[in-house]
Design goal:
There is one protein chain. The protein has about 400 residues and is of the alpha+beta class. The protein folds into 2 domains: about 150 residues, Four Helix Bundle (Hemerythrin (Met), subunit A) (Up-down Bundle); about 220 residues, paralog of FGE (formylglycine-generating enzyme) (Alpha-Beta Complex), CATH 3.90.1580. It is built from 10 helices and 12 strands. Strands 10-9-8-11 form a 4-stranded mixed sheet, covered by helices on one side. Strand 5 and strand 6 form a beta hairpin. The longest helix has 28 residues. The protein binds fe (ii) ion (FE2).
Length: about 400
């Protein structure tokens, strides 16, 4: 990524991060509802700890802070330190003002570094670009954590109207794709500024033949499944999915509930609202996505099908409001090899444990961060992020 382009994107992300944090109190930032998410304070410390590592080769005096904060803010970078368990990412000290000071210091260093034309950028840009993408990823995670946090308050609390607004969905239609010529999947790394290594190397796919929906499933469509008793009928669920439903008494998507006059409500960042039938259904697990697809006599797409459709169909294929569950596993692409040395932990290899892949992006994803080849990966029962459903069929 060019230095000028980087600076614009960095400043946008930095401003967005600060705008979000300014809307919260110090007390909000310290709370961790449970081990499904981390406190906002932790996210913030973790974001800047990683920037700290990225910048420390250029700005040596920063190294001391890496050690000081490693135990607290490391997530899964074992080369640096052991780390605080995820269930304990809520703490009194360091104070919020200290973490904000840490952020301010590093921001200042970055601004100086990026504005100095005498420094050759080629050596340090890969690490900085990774840290920028990491910050953008955490902005999405922070918004999801805030939603989870505010929903846990009694009474539920409103946030702001600027972050992540879902858009009404148009009428659905089926799109048929059949082809025999070779189709390149994944990303050609040399042609782009940044991608995670799980999106490479590009590989050829020779034949495709499937039908896919032009858009994701709406709340209204999903409500039909709920009201038809979908959560009570084992025949729609995989064995693991059914165990999950029973064990956790699941009866609807995560943020749905009924008010005292029996209307379906949904919590979103602006607070509780009547369930809007025309918005995408979100915060569902893979199990719910599978069960819904079965109930409709359809199936979920594979990640290959998703990528082929998004590439070929262009604007006719609407995506970007919710992360879409696929039937594919987060495994390496053919001919992928993890790097022999990975001191910055830039590789996604350690996460390739066969968990399901989600494609697309969500309304919480920062602008410029989404791309067709992006592979997201949540555990199948995870509902805190914007997980949604697109249907597909075989021909
Ligand atoms: Fe992280």
């Amino acid at each position: 990524m060019l230095k000028t382009e980087f600076l614009v994107r960095y400043r946008t992300a930095y401003q967005e991060l600060n705008r979000i944090i300014d809307l919260l109190s110090v007390e909000d930032c310290a709370v961790q509802v449970d081990d499904k998410h981390s406190s906002i304070k932790w996210h913030l410390g973790h974001i800047w700890w990683l920037w700290n590592i990225a910048i420390s080769d250029i700005d040596i005096k920063r190294k001391t802070f890496i050690e000081q904060y490693s135990y607290l803010f490391n997530s899964y970078y074992p080369g640096y330190s052991t780390s605080l368990p995820q269930s304990r990412r809520s703490f009194g000290r360091p104070f919020m003002r200290e973490i904000l000071g840490y952020q301010e210091n590093l921001n200042e260093s970055l601004e100086i570094l990026l504005s100095d034309d005498s420094i050759d950028s080629s050596d340090y840009m890969p690490a900085l670009t990774f840290a920028l993408n990491h910050m953008e990823q955490h902005i999405e995670l922070i918004l999801s954590s805030i939603k989870y946090l505010l929903n846990s308050y009694s009474p539920k609390v409103t946030f702001d109207s600027e972050s992540g607004t879902e858009l009404y969905l148009s009428k659905s239609s089926w799109l048929e794709l059949t082809g025999e010529k070779n189709f390149m999947l994944g990303l050609n790394q040399s042609a782009t500024s940044f991608c995670y290594d799980c999106e490479t190397p590009q590989y050829e796919h020779f034949q495709y033949s499937f039908i896919i929906s032009n858009r994701v499933v709406t709340n209204g469509e999903y409500l039909e499944f709920v009201e038809a008793g979908g959560y009570e009928d084992r025949s729609y669920w995989t064995n693991t999915g059914w165990d999950w439903v029973c064990k956790n008494s699941i009866t609807s998507p995560f943020y749905w509930y009924k008010n005292n006059v029996d209307d379906w409500m949904e919590f979103y960042l602006l607070g509780p609202r009547l369930l809007n039938h025309y918005l995408p259904v979100t915060h569902v697990s893979l199990y719910e996505a599978q069960a819904y697809a079965k109930w409709r006599d359809n199936r979920l797409p594979t990640e290959k099908e998703w990528e082929i459709a998004a590439t070929i169909l262009d604007d006719d294929f609407q995506w970007g409001q919710v992360w879409e569950w696929t039937t594919s596993k987060f495994d390496p692409y053919p001919k992928y090899y993890p790097p022999a040395k990975d001191p910055m932990h830039l590789s996604t290899w350690s996460l390739m444990d066969g968990r399901p892949v989600l494609r697309g992006a969500s309304c919480f994803t920062p602008e410029g961060h989404a791309r067709i080849t992006y592979r997201n990966y949540y555990k199948p029962d995870y509902r805190l992020q914007f997980g949604g459903i697109r249907l597909a069929k075989s021909i």
